[in-house]
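ok so i was messing around last nite and threw this chain in just to see what happens. nothing serious, just curious
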Amino acid sequence: MRLRVLLLGLILVPLVVGCMSYQVPPYSPSYEFIDGLKGKNLEKIAVSEVQPRDPNSPVNRITLRGSWLLVQDGTFATYFESALKSDLNEIGFLTKIQQSDWMPKF
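result:
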């Protein structure tokens, strides 16, 4: 009887754990990398809206070992955009997009 319970537990635990979702922790920058870039003479960079925003888009439906990856901001695209802006702002390289920079001129 004990062997059956043990075997049942060994079978069910991976199935239950495999169906769970993984909540992504808030983004934490690599300060070693950021400190290395601070002394460089680089141009400022603007980050536009990362696409796609649709939560059902394949890029926003990421699985990790069979578990769904859940992001607090809603989608992986918004998480990635926030991380980029955070790092660039920290090192002083983030600039705002000017409409004239990306609008085609006719």
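not much to say yet. The chain has four helices and three strands.
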